[in-house]
Design goal:
Layout lengths: L2 H11 L4 H7 L13 E5 L6 E5 L3 E6 L5 H15 L4 E5 L4 H15 L7 E5 L5 H14 L4 E5 L11 H17 L3 E7 L9 H10 L2 E7 L7 E8 L8 E5 L5 E3 L29 H11 L5 E3 H19 L14 H13 L3 E5 L6 E5 L6
Parallel strand pairs: 3-7, 3-8, 4-5, 4-6, 6-7
Antiparallel strand pairs: 1-2, 8-9, 9-10, 10-11, 12-14, 13-14
């Protein structure tokens, strides 16, 4: 056995000198430390509001499907464009296809086709212990400024186990210090009450530098509201709101006032209203029509409705993220396809012509300039 190997074995079993470790962490009364480097800020606030700092952890919470992933994607798009922050994104919930879609969605928000400073990994197939080990292996091997854990609940076995909750939050805080990065965790809220789920949620909230809460309004076309539940060492920022542009991409709308947004009470949550077909963006409906007419130039009325049903879900997946559907429909049935066909005709996405047989109607794509 080599001398180095012997020394390593001795070090592995030797007791730690806890006094020396404790003394090394004594807080000075004479030297004032500067605030750690910011890795993410809110650009819509003047001057910019530093949001996440190295050496800390944060939590983004919300009920299922309200847009937690979308708000993080929107906020990091700016730093990806600037090219000065390296980001590690760990997905534990969606699987490879949806993680891939999220990454392309994020790049689209940033206006990029490729970014060396973004790395996304799909750890859905692994267990909690393996996910922790895999993440730490990446942190030890490469340099990251911001780490997104999309599904921190999947890093432990029991969300209500206080020991596991304490251990994983301690591990996350240690990563933020040892690897000089910020760790942001995404976690679900309870269906009622708005509280973060389980002992894990309580630990994440207590140990975080910033806690953001994401929710949907109950307006006919819902808007996403982002609230600062807690922040350490500075004033909270005001609530802000997300809408979507004509391409279906989210943006921060600073013109919205809180008094104009309808929010449900936590004690009686209401179902998010589903969008009418007229509320879908021009880009979404145009892509749907073009997808339907990829192989055929014309359809009978019945076949056209069947093709709408068949193609809808694939276009939905390209346009929306799984975690941010804002009242859209992931699928449609034949009855809904009748109403969709009527809207597409009236809005001149498609045209109806008389067919070769009596009482037959042929559906064709409208000239591009008409919609």
């Amino acid at each position: 056995m080599q001398v180095n190997e012997i020394l390593e074995d001795v070090a592995a079993v030797a007791p730690k000198d806890y006094l020396s470790i404790a003394l090394s962490k004594k807080v000075s009364q004479t030297d004032k430390l500067p605030r750690p480097e910011s890795v993410l800020h809110l650009e819509h606030i003047e001057p910019y509001y530093p949001l996440f700092h190295k050496g800390s952890i944060s939590t983004v919470s919300g009920k299922a499907k309200v847009g937690k992933t979308t708000i993080i994607a929107l906020l990091i798009a700016a730093v990806l464009r600037a090219g000065n922050v390296r980001i590690l994104w760990i997905d534990t919930e969606q699987g490879a296809y949806y993680a891939n879609s999220t990454q392309f969605y994020l790049l689209k928000l940033a206006g990029l086709t490729y970014c060396e400073n973004l790395e996304m990994y799909d750890f859905r197939e692994f267990g909690p212990v393996e996910r922790v080990d895999l993440t730490e292996a990446l942190l030890a091997a490469y340099k990251y400024d911001l780490v997104i854990v999309d599904g921190v609940r999947d890093y432990i076995f029991d969300i209500n186990n206080p020991t596991e909750a304490t251990n994983i939050t301690t591990k996350l805080m240690k990563w933020s210090v040892d690897y000089n990065c910020h760790v942001c965790m995404l976690i679900h809220e309870n269906k009622q009450g708005g509280e973060l789920r389980g002992h894990l949620g309580s630990e994440c909230e207590n140990k975080s530098e910033v806690v953001l809460s994401v929710a949907l309004s109950t307006d006919s076309v819902p808007v996403t509201i982002v609230r600062c539940k807690a922040v350490r060492g500075r004033a909270k920022f005001e609530d802000f709101f997300l809408r979507r542009n004509e391409e279906g991409l989210p943006f921060i709308d600073t013109s919205i006032a809180m008094s104009s947004v309808r929010m449900f009470g936590d004690e009686k949550p209401k179902r998010v209203p589903l969008m009418e077909f007229r509320d879908y963006s021009v880009l979404f409906l145009t892509n749907l029509v073009q997808k339907v007419f990829e192989k055929n130039q014309e359809y009978s009325s019945t076949t056209f409705r069947e093709e709408l049903v068949y193609q809808w879900s694939s276009v939905w997946e390209d346009h929306y993220s799984e975690d941010d559907n804002s009242g859209s429909r992931k699928t449609i049935n034949p009855d809904l396809a009748k109403g969709l066909k009527k809207h597409l005709v009236s809005a001149k996405y498609v045209i109806e012509e008389d067919g070769p047989k009596a009482n037959q109607v042929i559906i064709k794509i409208a000239p591009e300039e008409s919609f």
